[in-house]
Amino acid sequence: MSQTFEVIHESQFAGAALADALEVLGFVEFAEGKPVRAATLLGAAETQWRASGGSRYPPDQPDYERTITRIRAALDADTYAMAWREGQTMSGEQAMEYSRSSS
Hints:
78% of the residues lie in helices and 0% in strands. By secondary structure, the chain is mainly alpha-helical.
């Protein structure tokens, strides 16, 4: 994934490509038992989707919604909201850095 971010960064093709990559990483974090990191990454992805004017591939929407529901169920409302907001305030660069950190 690190190489993916390098290509995104070097080409300055953030937006939708970055949003998609952050979503995938959010799903992986959740699968690995890290719902707070997942919520943060998905909040960051949402910001990138909005900034780019892009949208999620429609067939992916049901899986996305199921995953969000599962993340919400794994966290109390305040923790989820805090993690989501943290992600939403990240720039693309900050989101890439966060995704590479190990917390």
